Amino acid sequence: xxxTIRPVVIGDYDGIYELWNSTExxxxxxxxxxxxxEGIERYLKRNPTTCFLAYLNDNTEKIVGxxxxxxxxxxxxxxxxxxxxxYRRQGIAHTLVQKAEDALRNEGITKIxxxxxxxxxxxxxxxxxxxxxxxxxxxxxxxxxxxxxxxxE
Length: 153
What we know:
Blueprint: E1 3-7, H1 13-20, H2 24-29, H3 37-46, E2 51-56, E3 63-71, E4 76-83, H4 92-106, E5 112-114, H5 121-129
Parallel strand pairs: 4-5
Antiparallel strand pairs: 1-2, 2-3, 3-4
């Protein structure tokens, strides 16, 4: 299988959204505002060099993986990371993480964090393998500024 990795552009949105809907864990992380075409377009304008996708290098060019990472000039966050269930355990996720980390390092970023559902054992194990440690001394807090965006559990 021949996979190509390249930066994400807004024209990839439909394929990425289809990918996100290929797995329950990714679907539950989506919200109708931030993950809409308009929301992702805003995100990509702010983070044009730190988001990557993996696609089949064949006549389908099916998107099989994506990572959206961004930063505020100090710290970075992995906002979305997904590999299609049919293409897991082939190094795609690892390669996407490496590309994102390299891009962030090139922009002077020295620390990255990510959010993973506590009950997503597979993802938590993956991030541990990538060297991401679990912080237990912090509470994650959020506030929705838009009634269409769920507050979370």
